[in-house]
Design goal:
mainly alpha
Length: 462
């Protein structure tokens, strides 16, 4: 979508944020779409091995998924700019249904080929969905409340994981010795995913969304393939995107360790479902907390960004340190008796709190990165590409992580790699905020669509 001009003001300032064309309603709608599709996917993945006793099929399906996701995550921003939200989001959402259905098939036939093909297609669809979601979440809100709207989205989205965790917990409650989830679990996931696919048609394009101050998000026309191809290639030489690469790579890399090798190894089937309720519930708390820090802690936007990164870095160090203490107790060759929330007593508490804390950190880390991305520009054309690049790199990291687990890398090695990757990302994000994020009062000085390095070049007029 190419810009025809700067942000456009409507003739009358809207009177309520609950209008259908308001950023609040549109962010809520994309949150509900992700509640139904990736939210349920997260609940399925969070059980370890896609709810199967043998993790091989799920690991191979996820490797295929994140390999194609890495490609279409990067391309997704350009595709969104060409096709617009309706076709992009609807196509992306529909692939989630097929993926859940492939594990329903696997429950009966134990052939992983269908799951791998479905994972490949889901990678394409997820790339489209998340590129569109990233553009909507970072460009529709007003500049001074992006953290608040990111936390709104993250809370609604992760409620999907909470509800999705309840599905296997309830349907498998009396199957405490079961190894794989029943058919009803997969059918329940598919029903939610189908609803989310239909709901995606309710999302408005940016030119029809009006903020509370009367400005439209962008006055746009649809882009073309050649333009988007050139702009996407430029991302790989964009210094801002290169500074985000370690954060993007690590932000889904740790899921394999947390889902398969903490939740999937330490707990029995029904307890894994319960744990996911709290894991994704913790994400809601984490997103709200970091959203407040990024929007309200200080008047200076740059200072808010630096403080937010510092808070996440300190909390992340503490949580991964707790993960190290827990990991010293078991390994691939030294397994523990699986824990049950009712029968294991005090032994359940420590690993449960750790898994809850992993969820808290995940939301804070990703919300922080999205806030930084959203502070680099303010129109959906640029931000759809930035979000697509972020999701593409993120998915490449996830594809590697799932294969690492398939090849039985030690649990301790996986923990150390995860901790190291997230730690490396913090100073690089600090540099990015110092060089590219402008204070609110300085953002009125220029007219460029994108923030430039500190002390040089024009800055964006919001």
């Amino acid at each position: 979508m190419g810009l025809e001009g700067d942000e456009e003001s409507v003739s009358q300032v809207p009177t309520t944020k609950f209008r259908y064309n308001s950023p609040f309603v549109q962010i809520s709608l994309i949150g509900l779409v992700c509640f139904c599709c990736p939210g349920m996917f997260n609940a399925l993945s969070g059980m370890g091995g896609g709810g199967q006793v043998d993790h091989t099929a799920a690991n191979n399906a996820n490797t295929a998924l994140y390999t194609t996701f890495a490609v279409f995550g990067v391309l997704g921003g350009g595709i969104y700019n060409i096709l617009g939200p309706h076709l992009t989001l609807f196509t992306g959402c529909s692939t989630y249904i097929l993926y859940a259905g492939s594990f329903l098939y696997y429950n009966h036939h134990k052939h992983q080929a269908f799951a791998i093909v479905a994972g490949t297609l889901l990678g394409i669809g997820a790339g489209l969905l998340w590129a569109g979601q990233g553009a909507i979440m970072t460009s529709y809100p007003p500049t001074h409340r992006k953290g608040t709207y990111i936390s709104l989205f993250w809370s609604i989205f992760n409620m999907g994981g909470v509800i999705g965790g309840l599905i296997p917990f309830v349907l498998n409650y009396h199957r405490s010795d079961a190894a794989s989830v029943n058919d009803g679990t997969y059918i329940g996931f598919m029903a939610f995913m189908a609803a989310g696919t239909l709901l995606s048609l309710a999302i408005l394009p940016p030119s029809k969304v009006v903020r509370d101050d009367g400005t439209r998000c962008s006055n746009i026309k649809y882009s073309n393939v050649s333009t988007e191809g050139v702009e996407i290639l430029k991302l790989f030489l964009n210094w801002k995107m290169l500074l985000i690469v370690p954060a993007a790579w690590s932000s889904n890399f740790f899921y394999t360790y947390q889902f398969n090798n903490v939740n999937g190894v330490l707990f029995n089937l029904r307890t894994r479902g319960l744990n996911n309720v709290f894991y994704w519930g913790a994400q809601m708390l984490g997103s709200v907390g970091i959203g407040y820090v990024m929007d309200f802690s200080f008047k200076s936007r740059r200072k808010r960004g630096l403080v937010g990164i510092g808070v996440v870095a300190l909390l992340g160090t503490a949580i991964w340190g707790g993960g190290l203490a827990n990991q010293l107790k078991y390994s691939r060759s030294k397994t523990l008796q699986t824990l049950d929330f009712k029968d294991s007593g005090g032994a359940f508490a420590g690993p449960f709190v750790l898994y809850f804390s992993f969820g808290l950190l995940d939301a804070m880390f990703q919300s922080m990165v999205y806030w930084v991305i959203g502070a680099l520009a303010d129109d959906s054309e640029i931000l759809s590409r930035y979000a697509g690049f972020y999701k593409g790199v993120q998915s490449a990291g996830a594809a590697v992580a799932w294969q690492i687990d398939t090849h039985n890398l030690s649990f301790m090695s996986q923990l150390i790699v995860n901790w190291g990757l997230t730690t490396i990302s913090y100073p690089l994000l600090v540099i990015l905020v110092l060089l590219a994020v402008k204070d609110d009062n300085k953002a009125e000085e220029g007219t460029s669509k994108e923030a430039g390095p500190t002390g040089a070049g024009p800055v964006y007029t919001y």
